[in-house]
Specification:
Blueprint (H helix, E strand, L loop, with lengths): L4 H21 L3 H14 L4 H13 L3 H15 L1
Helix pairs in contact: 1-2, 2-3, 3-4
């Protein structure tokens, strides 16, 4: 079965999201954010990526960046 380019891209983005979750659990917030940055570059339509990155940014006291991502996540769900 052939996977469409969009499905393949989404799958890679989801894998990067899972990697980010694992990194964050291990306390590697900056690496987790970098993983989400890559995921967002691949699939900018996935609101959960922005939501997860907003959470990590807030944990690093980067409130303005976190708010920007939270707003983007909401905009994508409307």
């Amino acid at each position: 079965m052939k996977v469409s380019p969009v499905e393949g891209t989404k799958g890679r983005a989801e894998a990067l999201k899972e990697l980010a979750t694992s990194l964050a659990r291990g306390g590697e917030m900056r690496r987790a954010i970098a993983s989400l940055d890559e995921a967002i570059a691949l699939a900018p339509w996935l609101a959960t990526l922005y939501c997860n990155r907003a959470h990590l940014l807030e944990s690093l006291h980067r409130s303005e960046d976190a708010l920007r991502d939270a707003r983007q996540a909401v905009a994508l769900t409307l």
